[in-house]
Amino acid sequence: MVVCGLACWRCRWLLPLLLGLAIIMGIIALAGRGWLESESEPYVHQASLWESCTRGQEDLNWNCESLMDYGWGRAAAATYLVGFVILVICFALAVIAFSIEILRFNFVRGIGGLLFVVAAFQIIGLVIYPVKFAEEIPLTGDNMFSWAYGFGWASTVVVIGCAFFFCCLPNWEDEVLGNIKPTYYYSSPERAPYLN
User: Whole-model pTM above 0.70?
Assistant: First the structure.
């Protein structure tokens, strides 16, 4: 006997949990110094969303300049940060929405719409940064966009996935709330004689 169902009410915390994961990855991206790094030795360049640091091949101290002195640096940081703040708000709204017994599915769809706005802001910041950085900051040696930049993209991908789920969840309102009877499938009538 197999019970078919799209979702269960007990699994309602999965989406807020994924939003929490996106927040953690966003914090790592905002605080990490690995947006751009030298690819191989000598490691002479590293950058975060906020500053770019260089050093000589024999020098141990990093010389850092703020990217907030550039208009594109402020734009990249502002758009990513605005997206992150809206993401935190969406997380709080999702916790509230899934905590109450009578789930407001239009409210859930609104959270999905806000998550698309989050993704748009984060994508704008993540595209501005490498394009303008490569154009305006002199780079020496081989450089790569590294782990913190990757966490920024990972957070954005999770947000996009959650946005689709939040927007589509009201289509399965009855299944999620348990308002319909489960459908049981049997392989043959001989295996379930009590149904006759």
Answer: yes
